[in-house]
Amino acid sequence: MKNKIHHKKMTVINGGHFSNLEGFYEEISQLFMKDEDWKVGTLDGFDDILYGVETDITWKDSQKSKEDLGFDLTKEFYENKIKQGKPFNVQLIQQKLDELIAGKGQTLFEILIEIIESHKNITLILD
Question: Are 40 and 65 in contact (CB under 8 A)?
């Protein structure tokens, strides 16, 4: 009997398709949730849909995404949550914003990378 080589699924996130977090969620929803009647709309939701997923993810135009989802957008992301208040933990978000401004915090791009890399069945390739 010959051994069958089991190839992991390959998923491509195309950074050319989006320039903000909403666009990223849209891209992810199309890739992972075509047949679902809900879409990803939060960082936690993104994390949740990756449980049980086995795939290699190639993030095309990742340098563009790194810039798009960088300092400015992250700062705006936190400021909007602080303005909105509940249900967000404003103190925690203020702390994350302060860290970002001080150059110690993560950008949205780095947070998304960390979420993907926390799932051991997923291999991430930045292209």
Answer: no
pLDDT in tens, 67-82: 999 999 999 999 999 9
Given a contact cutoff of 8 angstroms between Cβ atoms, the answer to whether 127 and 58 are in contact is yes
Query: Are the C-beta atoms of residues 69 and 24 closer than 8 Å to each other?
Result: yes
DSSP 17: G
User: Cα 78 from chain centroid?
Assistant: 15
Distance CA 56, CA 60 (A): 12
User: pTM of the prediction?
Assistant: 0.90
Q: Whole-angstrom Cα distance, residue 8 to residue 77?
A: 34
Helix, coil or strand: residue 21: helix
